[in-house]
Automatic annotation (TrEMBL):
Residues 8-258 form the ABC transporter domain. It is found in: Cell membrane. It comes from Nonomuraea corallina. It comes from the Bacteria. This is ABC transporter ATP-binding protein. Pfam families: ABC_tran, oligo_HPY. It is a peripheral membrane protein. Its main location: membrane.
Length: 328
């Protein structure tokens, strides 16, 4: 669907990893909508399943992982879970651009950035390779870089912020209209972070993209996202418009994440870390609420029953305690 931001519908997605204890879910029964032309943020602690969910949009979950159930339907592509071989390869880059966590890991240290742009073009059958390099140079220039110099550089000659911008360029240069950014500001200083987020907003608006931002930093999604999804233990526990979720969080995990943010002004002691630790693949409970061991609102039903994702106006929340309060 060239020139048009695609919508994405993730339904009942479950991704499992094979372990000595059997197949364990890293993502379990996740449903999420990315509306055309919007920026959606997924936030959660490390190990919550965010990156695994994002890789599912490329059907790129690597063994010992596999998509065990569900669908990822992208306008213009169909269900990517069913794509294989050449069809899948063409979808990556052309339809879905992906900026990997730690951008330097996705660059070839033996080739200049320009040669990697040419390789990308050749692998996708681009006939006008000069035009592709011209587009790459222009994109880099719009991101505040000397495009010619960067294209002639190897990754070790670029700073972290420059490499992150190169990653964004590579995700966009084939004119993808669905872009996934996995931890786009990790390990960057505050000034570079702010610049990257400004670039994400500008490029998103100018190119008419549908954008998914994966992060552990609520400040990042507050800065750029229209909608926010909160992930914990492989489940989506709360979704909704970003301002609503941050201004009036419903799920106790969302409240805990916001409470843990350090404040620049006021009483520093008001910031309180969440008690306990997030679950690993091996410790996620097979039934009941995944957050119950750290939850101050824990009830008996949380031990045995998965809370259903229930709509509350524009919000979707998976929490037994929220349902009880709504009906009280």
């Amino acid at each position: 669907m060239p020139g048009q931001a695609p919508g994405v519908r993730i339904d009942g997605l479950t991704v499992v990893y094979k372990t000595p204890a059997g197949e364990l879910p890293a993502v379990r029964d996740v449903s999420l909508r990315l509306e055309p032309g919007t920026i959606t943020g997924i936030v959660g602690e490390s190990g919550s399943g965010k990156s695994t969910l994002a890789l599912s949009l490329l059907n790129a979950v690597q063994p010992p992982g596999r998509i065990a159930a569900g669908s990822v339907d992208i306008d213009g592509l169909g269900d990517v879970v069913g794509l294989r071989g050449e069809e899948l390869r063409k979808a990556r880059g052309r339809h879905v651009g992906y900026v990997f966590q730690a951008a330097q890991n996705s660059l070839n240290p033996l080739k200049t950035v320009g040669k990697q742009v040419l390789d990308l073009g050749r692998s996708h059958g681009v006939e006008d390779l000069r035009g592709l390099v011209r587009d790459a140079k222009e994109l880099l220039g719009r991101m505040g870089l000397d495009g010619a110099r960067v294209l002639d550089s190897h990754q070790h000659e670029l700073s972290g912020g420059m490499r992150q911008r190169v990653g964004i360029m590579l995700a966009l240069v084939l004119n993808a209209h669905l872009v996934v950014l996995d931890e786009p500001t990790t390990a960057l200083d505050m000034i570079t972070q702010a610049n990257i987020l400004k670039i994400v907003r500008e490029v998103h608006a100018e190119r008419g993209l549908t954008t998914l931002v994966i992060t552990h930093d609520i400040g990042v999604v507050a800065e750029v996202a229209d909608r926010l999804a909160v992930m914990y233990g492989g489940r989506l526990v709360e979704q909704g418009p970003t301002r609503q979720v941050l201004g009036d969080p419903r799920h106790p995990y969302t409240k805990g994440l916001i409470r843990a943010i350090p404040r620049l002004t006021g009483d520093i002691s008001e910031a309180r870390a969440l008690p306990g630790r997030p679950p690993t693949l091996a410790t996620v409970p097979e039934r009941g609420c995944v957050f119950r061991d750290r939850c101050e609102l824990r009830m008996d039903v949380c031990e045995t029953d998965d809370p259903a994702a229930t709509a509350h106006g524009d919000r979707i929340v998976a929490c037994h305690a929220v349902k009880v309060r709504e009906h009280a």
